[in-house]
Amino acid sequence: MTFSVHGLVVSRGVAIGRAVLVASSRADVGQYFIEPEKTEAEIERVRLSRNAVMEEITRLQHELPTDAPHEIAALLDVHLMLLQDEQLIGGVKHWIVDRHYNAEWALITQYELIARQFDEMEDEYLRERKADLEQVVERILRHMKGGASPLQHPGVRAGSSRKQSQDLLLDDTLDVPLVLVAHDISPADMLQFKQSLFAGFATDVGGKTSHTAIVARSMDIPAVVGARSASQLIKQDDWVIIDGEAGVLIVDPSPIILAEYGFKQRQGELERQRLNRLRNTPSLTLDGQRIELLANIELPEDTLGAVQAGAVGVGLFRSEFLFMGRKGKLPDENEQYQAYRKAIDGMQGMPVTIRTVDIGSDKPLDRFSGKAQDGQLNPALGLRAIRWSLADPPMFLAQLRAILRAAFHGRVNLLVPMLAHVSEIRQTLAMIALAREQLDKHCIPYGPVRLGAMIEIPAAALTVPLFLKHFDFLSIGTNDLIQYVLAIDRADEAVAHLYDPCHPAVLRLIADTIAQCQVQGKGVTVCGEMAGDVGMTRLLLGLGLRSFSMHPSQILAVKQQILRADTAKLKLWAQEVLDSDEPSTLL
Q1: For residues 95 and 114, what is the distance between their CA atoms, to the nearest angstrom?
Q2: Whole-angstrom Cα distance, residue 311 to residue 336?
Q3: Which of 184, 202, 55 is nearest to 129 (CA)?
Q4: Is residue 291 within 8 Å of 283, Cβ to Cβ?
Q5: pLDDT band at residue 165 using 50, 70 and 90 as cut-offs
Q6: Is the pLDDT of residue 531 over 50?
Q7: Catalytic residue, candidates 79, 183, 502, 527
Q8: Is 443 among the residues known to form the active site?
Q9: Residue 87 CB coordination number (10 Å)
Q10: What would the pLDDT profile of 320-347 be if each residue is shown by its tens digit?
């Protein structure tokens, strides 16, 4: 009987195949007390399994294919750090020695204790990092049981329990395509994905910024995450359709549905090929408006994908990724300088916009530390981003000096996040001036930078003229702007349905920001999720936006929309949308 399971859209495309189920190792962990004299033996079991996982990940790092997404390499580093974290290992020893728990029970207990700290974090990205910890624990448990990677031995039956017509619809191939259904998938397992038979995957957990989603997008794999009970509802060897466009899994589809999605899959492949032909096509509208398509990146290595996608620059380099997962140890000035220069070199003369670190109380540098949030009822409204930078002048000056030094080697824009007050603007400008003075004092060369501010707080969007007095350009961070305007945490399932990019208040703030920048002759870019949403491209063009910054994988699809657009006609329609009480009905 056909049924569907809904999840989140994270990587577009359609995959069709038989399900391979991977059960959680935590599901059948035995819980029992051990004799005191056996504590050392239990601790040794954990230590040996932990070491085996570390060796496995280290080996994978050395064997990493040259075409592997850099996200996987970075996440493998994170997993190695988690495996060495004293709070995890020390906590396990505590439960074994003091409570006499067996090794598996102690590991699960400590995982759950640390996981609660992640659950209390306000920031969506950091909250979803709990998945990294969970996967480390899963791998240790798997080794304690003597198991292998779930992608190595899928154990799939190629049986003929379904109609032969369904097999024929899959291009008469002898190799039955497979889709992976799991509670979650670790980065180490993802490494084997390209070499496997899997056409797509679905997970019970995860969000749009989970590592699984990030890797799926970078590898261009059809995927649905956050499907909750998928691994319980779907049976081994079931036929499954993964509709990445709608975030839906269709289980045991009828021949008619299967044929429909087979056609959709083939159309998707043809569309991908057509989009690839646009790579070197100038981004011009039908009425001759040149549109700037930029890339959002997290690490210097991302520039390769940006250039390959046809980006004309980097609109957002999220520098906080250089600071995170380091157990509280900050990158020094020279390390940052080298990273920024690598990104500049990677863009081959095209501009790179570096955002100063957007981290703070809700993005603790030590990912197991809860101290950063002590005494704060709502860290999302606390000491973060520019507030955190201004509160730590040595750290901020080191970053500013590194950015200025990197600007000596190419075109650099310096972007400041979460500004709201004129006092913050003045302090920031004073710090930039001081950084220049310090470089001059030591005769260190540096280059000019264009200064920009993020518009992501309603107060900033309502005082744009003030910002334009001090900055060369503005960048609208739609993710935070929507969240703050509507007082909605989109990661909270109870209210996520109210997170609405098309809310009249949101659209009016965006429209006003664009219009005021145009009047002043200043540049303005949208760098949030809205920029890469092809459903919003025409509206943003109609509102006057001429610069979009997005994940490199989204650039060609947005370019296609631009090539088909007439901004003169869209301007009138966009005004109708702005005037509507329900703008989404007109899109």
Answers
A1: 14
A2: 23
A3: 184
A4: yes
A5: very low
A6: yes
A7: 527
A8: no
A9: 16
A10: 878 876 656 789 999 999 999 999 999 9
Task: Return the SS3 of 201.
Answer: strand
Q: What whole-number distance in Å separates Cα of residue 123 and Cα of residue 521?
A: 35
Query: Is the pLDDT reported for residue 50 higher than 70?
Result: yes
Lookup: tokens for 195: 């070499």
What phi, psi does 71 have (nearest 5°)?
-60, -35
Question: Quick check: is 527 catalytic?
Answer: yes
- pTM equals 0.69
Taking the C-alpha atoms of residue 156 and residue 169, their distance in angstroms, rounded to an integer, is 20
Catalytic position from the list 183, 211, 503, 551: 211
Q: Which helix (DSSP H) or strand (DSSP E) does residue 346 occupy?
A: helix 333-346
For residues 525 and 518, give the distance between their C-alpha atoms in angstroms, rounded to a whole number. Answer: 11
Match 């980006």 to its residue by tokens.
311
Domains and CATH numbers, the chain: 3-20+152-274 (3.50.30.10), 25-144 (1.10.274.10), 281-586 (3.20.20.60)
Does an H or E element contain 474, and which?
strand 473-476
- The predicted-structure confidence for 217-260, as pLDDT tens digits, reads as follows 767 789 898 888 888 899 888 999 999 888 899 999 999 999 99
Task: Inform me whether the pLDDT recorded for 65 exceeds 90.
Answer: no
Q: How many whole angstroms from its chain centre is CA 93?
A: 34
Are 110 and 93 a contacting pair, CB within 8 Å? no
The answer to whether 276 touches 283, Cβ cutoff 8 Å, is: no
pLDDT at 28: 59
The half-sphere exposure of 522 on its side-chain side, counting CA atoms within 13 A, is 23
- In the structure, what pLDDT confidence band is assigned to residue 23 with cuts at 50, 70 and 90? low
Under 8 Å between Cβ of 235 and 160: no
- Amino acid identity at 570: L
Contacts 24+ apart (CB under 8 A), 41-49: 42/96, 42/102, 42/103, 42/106, 43/92, 43/93, 43/96, 43/97, 43/103, 45/103, 45/144, 46/89, 46/92, 46/96, 46/103, 46/106, 46/107, 46/140, 46/144, 48/143, 49/140, 49/141, 49/143, 49/144
Structure tokens at 286: 């039908």
Residue 66, pLDDT > 90, answer no
